[in-house]
Every structure is written in structure tokens, then in C-alpha cells.
């Protein structure tokens, strides 16, 4: 009797070790998945870069504070850049390259003073494109041009950033639409957000792993399964019966109904954002203006 008891205890201990090992591996896998998938989300971006040396330390501090408050309110990555050497690029291309190189986030805006091409530029990415419409772009460039014409560089960036804040407050992105100047495609907000975002993907994967691990652990514990210790003889116990069936086509009736096509811009009540795809593969809205 004691021998059976010892065997039972040994088997139970072995099963407990296997279940514990499964749980540990599952926790490690989830932790690794979250760290790998969410790393780009928390990648730090450069908020203010004064390559052209147009700002004093005090002015830079004011702009950084304004950017931080704007990022807190919107949840976007906001950048302000000055340059005196666009490395042979036009202002729009340089701004797009800069944004691509300094953030992995999908949603963000860059405001730039390009002293090389003598232009001020704004580019909006991700969901920001539905806020920085063509009308808002013109208003932002108007505000910046007024200040840059008088060589008031800090005030130029401040005015552009204030315009971004105004666009965030005033615009209704669900009613706006994108007009791709490269393909001619028109995309409304609903079409653009048809998929799931990165955070939703993480939760879905984690939930699936937890559910699968809990189910596997429950089955192992309930039935005291030993992996590889049991096989079901399907050839011996399996049974298949086939029945013959005939379908005869008798008649067919077809009804045609006209379904009106939905307006691609959500009824035409929203504002347009003209977008194009830059060299980095990202779509962006915005514009630039010579000074």
C-alpha cells in the first residue's frame, strides 16, 4: 500500500512540476512579447532641434514647454526643427525624413523653419492628418509667415504650434477625409481606422495566451495527463459512413436591387486633407511656404 502511495505522490509531484514549468514559460513569453511589441511605442522622440542656431536658451525652454503641453493634451509626438542645411532636399522631404528618423510613433506633427530653402513647413502623420486639413494648413502657415517675415523665429514656431492646438480643438476628424494626390484615392476616417491598433493587438495576444494556458493547465490538472503516455488508436476505433445524395436544380429566380454608393468622404460635410506618401513610406498632410 505504501508503494502505491509513493508512486502516486511521485506522479503528482511530476505533474505539479510540469504545470509550474508551463506557467513560468508562459509568463516569460508574455513579458518578452510585451517588451518587443511595445518598445516602438515608448521610443523617445526629439522635441526641439535648433540646427540653425536661431533660438536662445530661454526661447528654446519656452518652446519645449509649449511642445510638452501640446503632447500631453493630444497624445501625439510633436517636433519643432530649424535647419540651415537641408542636404539637397526640399523643405517637405527634409521634414518627412526628419520625422521618420526620430520617432517610431504613427501619430505626430513636425513644424520646421528651413533657412536653406527659405521655407516654413508643417507635416502631419497618422491620425493627425484628419486634423491638419488643407484649411488648417493654410491658417498655420499664415500665422507662421507673419512672424518669419520679421525674422521672429521663436514666435514663428510658437504660432505654428498654437495653430496645431487650434486644429486639435476645432476639427472633427470623424467627418474629415484624406485625398491622396499620388493615387487619387479618397479615404474617410472610418475606412482608415478599420483595423486594430498596436495596443489592442498586444491585449488580444496576451488574452489569447492566458486563455490557452489556463485551459491547458486545467485539463492537465483535471485528468492527470502524462504527455506522450497515451495514444488513441483511431484506425481501430474510428468509423466513417458515407451516404449518397443528389441535388436537382428545379428553377431559379433573380431579383435585382440598386444599392446606392456611399459617399467616400462621409457625405461631403467634412474637410479635406491632401496627403502624399514620402520617401520613408509614410503618408502625411500639410504644406510649406516660401519666405
Topology order in helix (H) and strand (E) letters: HEHEHEEHHEEHHHEE
The strand line-up of the biggest sheet is 1-2-3-4-8-7-5-6
Mean pLDDT: 79
Tally of DSSP β-strands: 8
- Indicate the percent of residues in helices: 40-55%
Strand proportion, as a percent range, falls in: 15-25%
Are there runs of 5+ residues with pLDDT below 50, and where?
35-44, 258-267
Number of alpha- plus pi-helical segments = 8
- Cα radius of gyration in angstroms: 30 Å
Could you give the distance between the termini? 96 Å
Structural category: alpha/beta
Structural shape: elongated
Notes on the protein architecture:
The chain has 291 residues and is α/β, with parallel strands linked by helices. The chain is 46% helix and 15% strand. It has an 8-stranded mixed sheet with strand order 1-2-3-4-8-7-5-6, sandwiched between helices. Helix 1 packs antiparallel against helix 7. The relative contact order is 0.16. Helix 3 links the parallel strand 2 and strand 3. The protein has 8 helices and 8 strands; from the N terminus they run αβαβαββααββαααββ.
Amino acid at each position: 500500500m505504501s508503494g502505491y502511495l509513493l508512486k502516486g505522490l511521485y506522479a503528482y509531484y511530476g505533474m505539479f512540476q510540469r504545470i509550474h514549468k508551463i506557467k513560468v514559460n508562459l509568463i516569460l513569453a508574455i513579458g518578452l512579447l510585451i517588451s518587443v511589441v511595445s518598445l516602438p511605442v515608448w521610443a523617445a522622440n526629439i522635441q526641439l532641434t535648433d540646427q540653425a542656431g536661431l533660438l536662445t536658451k530661454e526661447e528654446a525652454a519656452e518652446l519645449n514647454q509649449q511642445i510638452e503641453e501640446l503632447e500631453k493634451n493630444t497624445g501625439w509626438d510633436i517636433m519643432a526643427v530649424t535647419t540651415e542645411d537641408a542636404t539637397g532636399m526640399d523643405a517637405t522631404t527634409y521634414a518627412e525624413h526628419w520625422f521618420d528618423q526620430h520617432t517610431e510613433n504613427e501619430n505626430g506633427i513636425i513644424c520646421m523653419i528651413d533657412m536653406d530653402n527659405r521655407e516654413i513647413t508643417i507635416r502631419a502623420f497618422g491620425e493627425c492628418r484628419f486634423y491638419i486639413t488643407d484649411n488648417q494648413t493654410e491658417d498655420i502657415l499664415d500665422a507662421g509667415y507673419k512672424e518669419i517675415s520679421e525674422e521672429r523665429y521663436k514666435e514663428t514656431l510658437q504660432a505654428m504650434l498654437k495653430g496645431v492646438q487650434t486644429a486639435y480643438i476645432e476639427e472633427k476628424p470623424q467627418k474629415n477625409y484624406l485625398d491622396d494626390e499620388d493615387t487619387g484615392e479618397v479615404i474617410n476616417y472610418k475606412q482608415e481606422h478599420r483595423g486594430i491598433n498596436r495596443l489592442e493587438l498586444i491585449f488580444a495576444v496576451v488574452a489569447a495566451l492566458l486563455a490557452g494556458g489556463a485551459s491547458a493547465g486545467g485539463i492537465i490538472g483535471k485528468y492527470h495527463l502524462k504527455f506522450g503516455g497515451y495514444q488513441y488508436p483511431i484506425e481501430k476505433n474510428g468509423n466513417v459512413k458515407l451516404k449518397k445524395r443528389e441535388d436537382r436544380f428545379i428553377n431559379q429566380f433573380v431579383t435585382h436591387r440598386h444599392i446606392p454608393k456611399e459617399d467616400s468622404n462621409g457625405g461631403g460635410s467634412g474637410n479635406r486633407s491632401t496627403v502624399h506618401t514620402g520617401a520613408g513610406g509614410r503618408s502625411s498632410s500639410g504644406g510649406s511656404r516660401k519666405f
